[in-house]
Amino acid sequence: MKERNGNRLLIVIGTIIVQMGLGTIYTWSLFNQPLVDKFGWDLSATAITFSITSFALAFATLFAGKIQDKLGLRRLIAFAGIMLGGGLMLTSQVSSLSMLYLIAGVCVGFADGTAYITSLSNLIKWFPEKKGLISGISVGAYGTGSLVFKYINTSIIASYGVSTAFLIWGIIALTMVVGGSFLLKEAREVETTTTSLAPEQKNYTVKEMLKTKQAYLLFVIFFTACMSGLYLIGIVKDIGVSLAHLDVATAANAVALVAIFNTIGRIILGALSDKVGRIKVVSGTLVVTAVAVTVLNVVPLSFPLFFACVAAIAFCFGGVITVYPAIIADFFGLKNQSKNYGIIYQGFGFGALAGSMIAAVLGGFHATFTVISVLCVISFVITLIIKPPFMEPEPKEKKQPQPKLVNRLG
Question: Considering 39, 54, 269, 280, which has the largest number of Cβ atoms within 10 A of its Cβ?
Answer without folding.
Answer: 269
